């Protein structure tokens, strides 16, 4: 399934085919922020960027824009929160198998069962919608459409079932929404705390964008410093600091320690990416470190693996990066950003909300003002 998804769902070609959706959604976001700016209000970027990211993923994955649909919107967000909550809940039986009764007693099994049923109902509705007769002609192709095509393609090696499709939708929702939102908030947080970097990246963006109102995906390829800012953000504020757990296949010895087969292994990427033996001044937000360096986050350079490495490597990287760069470039191109009155940069905290994805704990609230065209 992963191979099929990487080739057909997450390929660069497929990701490019969603560029109109990205442009539309980033423009919508800019409009909302302009509204806040003209009423001199404070913008809660954490809320806005989460909503932006979930709208993007839903449109790309299954062609729906829940932001337009009141009750459906809250149902969808409720489900998304529940997935996140259950995925980060501690089940003692994961570690001590015969203690399953404790999880049961705490009501965790019943809750898990109930949420899985609701999720399944939701995924089934998505599938039914895509099977509707007038669907194909009226809407742009989304990921579920592609999966349907693959299901009917005799050259695909496995027999794709609806359960496979449901599994893929679930993976995309869980893995794609929160991560993208969290990283965009961390990037803005880091820039607000580092005015030198903010000034430098805005100069680059505004030089490339010059008289344009909106930077598109081609312009972004020229933004070398913005790309370094992205890498530095992912070095210091990676949303999945322990990746996803692995299990050792066979017994092995590492640094003299015997690791039995079937041991759950967590990779502490947070520590690797702040290791003073690897990074000079590791705690400093210094994007320049990547300017003359070939280190990249595609899973080959083990000092920088915010998307993991090996077989479980994140297949969403092309989509995540293009989305993050587009949104960040335009936030910084169109607006100047200031802290709410009375706040100084030292007041911005970098505390983390406990959970499966590392979000900034306290919402990032900033004042935007439209940039002055010179
Ligand atoms: C900045 C944003 C993102 C970050 C930092 C991120 C990070 C990660 C990490 C660390 C993993 C586990 C890799 C490992 O353990 O080796 C992962 C897996 C995954 N990611 Fe991402 N991700 C991001 C965005 C996305 C997006 C946008 C999508 C899809 C639309 C996505 C889809 C997936 C999927 C399906 C997996 C599971 C792969 C597997 O288990 O084989 N990710 N991601």
From TrEMBL:
<protein>
    <recommendedName>
        <fullName>Cytochrome P450</fullName>
    </recommendedName>
</protein>
<dbReference type="InterPro" id="IPR036396">
    <property type="entry name" value="Cyt_P450_sf"/>
</dbReference>
<keyword id="KW-0560">Oxidoreductase</keyword>
<dbReference type="GO" id="GO:0005506">
    <property type="term" value="F:iron ion binding"/>
</dbReference>
<keyword id="KW-0479">Metal-binding</keyword>
<keyword id="KW-0408">Iron</keyword>
<keyword id="KW-0812">Transmembrane</keyword>
<dbReference type="GO" id="GO:0016705">
    <property type="term" value="F:oxidoreductase activity, acting on paired donors, with incorporation or reduction of molecular oxygen"/>
</dbReference>
<dbReference type="InterPro" id="IPR001128">
    <property type="entry name" value="Cyt_P450"/>
</dbReference>
<dbReference type="GO" id="GO:0004497">
    <property type="term" value="F:monooxygenase activity"/>
</dbReference>
<dbReference type="InterPro" id="IPR002401">
    <property type="entry name" value="Cyt_P450_E_grp-I"/>
</dbReference>
<dbReference type="Pfam" id="PF00067">
    <property type="entry name" value="p450"/>
</dbReference>
<comment type="similarity">
    <text>Belongs to the cytochrome P450 family.</text>
</comment>
<keyword id="KW-0503">Monooxygenase</keyword>
<keyword id="KW-0349">Heme</keyword>
<dbReference type="GO" id="GO:0020037">
    <property type="term" value="F:heme binding"/>
</dbReference>
<feature type="binding site" description="axial binding residue">
    <location>
        <position position="314"/>
    </location>
    <ligand>
        <name>heme</name>
    </ligand>
</feature>
<dbReference type="InterPro" id="IPR017972">
    <property type="entry name" value="Cyt_P450_CS"/>
</dbReference>
<dbReference type="GO" id="GO:0016020">
    <property type="term" value="C:membrane"/>
</dbReference>
<keyword id="KW-0472">Membrane</keyword>
<keyword id="KW-1133">Transmembrane helix</keyword>
